[in-house]
Prior knowledge:
There is one protein chain. The protein is α+β, with helices and mostly antiparallel strands. It has 4 helices and 5 strands. A 5-stranded antiparallel sheet has the order 1-3-4-5-2. Strand 3 (about 70-80) and strand 4 form a beta hairpin. It is elongated, with a radius of gyration of 16 Å.
Amino acid sequence: MRTKFRVRYxxxxxxxxxxxxxxxxWFDVGRTELLxxxxxxxxxxxxxxxxxxxxxxNVRYKSPSYYxxxxxxxxxxxxxxxxxxxxxYKVYRGETLLAEGYTVHGFTDKNLxxxxxxxxxxxxYEILINNAERN
Length: 135
């Protein structure tokens, strides 16, 4: 799933280059749109009592991005287990890869107690499994 938007001025530093932490925010945009495309937005997940706290983040910066660049975030599901999910991200400006990385999220209830997703919500678990990249 790909999501496009323009770099906003507030996302850049004094040199006009996108500040590094904004890529993690952009990962969130990509992940949110990917889940929405699969029929499960964050609001719905929270309403059914499922939380996805981040337990790991990794970013590799390849090339700078600048104010007003049109960027595209590609988000994919890399891995799914009963207790966690790993999303992958690539950020592009045209054909140029700007950054890539991943986030790992645990499946928890509203009290942040770990849960087994396949027992908590089998249909969602199946959708996620079926949309994970095949390695």
